[in-house]
Amino acid sequence: MKQAMILAAGRGERMRPLTDHLPKPLLRAGGKPLILYHIERLVAAGLCEIVINHAHFGHCLEAALGDGSRWGARIRYSPEAEALETGGGIFQALPLLDGGPFLVVNGDIWTDLEFARLRLADGRLAHLVVVDNPPHHPEGDFALARGRLSVRGIPRFTFGGVGIYHPELFRGCSAGAFPLGPLLRAAMARGLVSGEHYPGRWFDIGTPERLQALDRMLEDR
């Protein structure tokens, strides 16, 4: 696996007014844009072929990142006239990928997870990273037991916005906006989604206050 996708098409409504003139992945913490942390970690993991989808102020992303060669990456873009949600955005970008499994990371998180350690086992459709439930999402998303994720059960964890997907997960999908969750839940019911818990540093940059907390942590470090 040498390819990855960064999801960067969200409007960032809760981040306003910071996102009134800038896409959320270009907001800065620790002295550089959030999305650059992902690019650097992906390249360090050998995932140099990167697709970025965008909608809101997408031209700003393309102007800031270019073709990615400054960081040893090859960046291609999947523009969306209107944001297609996570499932629709990934589905539209599939022709830019090589047909094998690919890593996807949300553009509005920060983590020190080493992407190189993630694997998708043969026969599985997805492998998701889950994290401890943050205060703003105490009930979590999925249960993790013996390396498999399910909708029901305990303990429950929060999806960390990092996963590996096989293109077969999207078989039968049609162009347009649709969420990823129903596809994952259907695959979980068939035992085809593995998972792992990551106990390290992870931030969901959903509000200006969380961005400020990340900035303080990075500056202190």
Number of domains: 1
CATH topology descriptor: Spore Coat Polysaccharide Biosynthesis Protein SpsA, Chain A
Q: What is the correct CATH architecture? A: Alpha-Beta Complex
**Residue fraction in strands:** 25-35%
CATH class categorisation:
Alpha Beta
Order of helices and strands: EEEHEHEHEEEEEEHEEH
Question: What's the gyration radius in Å?
Answer: 17 Å
Mean pLDDT: 93
CATH level-4 homologous superfamily: Spore Coat Polysaccharide Biosynthesis Protein SpsA, Chain A
Q: Describe the largest sheet.
A: 9 strands, mixed
Q: Structural class of the secondary elements?
A: alpha/beta
Fraction of residues in helix: 10-25%
* N-end to C-end Cα span: 31 Å
Give the overall silhouette: globular
The strand count comes to 13
Low-pLDDT regions: none
Write structural notes for this entry.
The protein has 221 residues and is an alpha/beta fold. It starts with a strand and ends with a helix. The chain has one domain (3-220): Spore Coat Polysaccharide Biosynthesis Protein SpsA, Chain A, CATH 3.90.550.10. 23% of the residues lie in helices and 28% in strands. It contains five helices and 13 strands. It has helices spanning 34-44, 58-65, 85-93, 181-189, 208-220; strands at residues 3-8, 28-29, 32-33, 49-54, 74-79, 102-106, 109-111, 126-131, 142-145, 148-150, 156-165, 193-197, 202-204. The strands form three sheets. Strands 1, 4, 5, 6, 8, 9, 10, 11 and 12 form a nine-stranded mixed β-sheet that branches. The radius of gyration is 17 Å and the shape is globular. The longest helix has 13 residues, at 208-220. The model has no long low-confidence stretch (mean pLDDT 93).
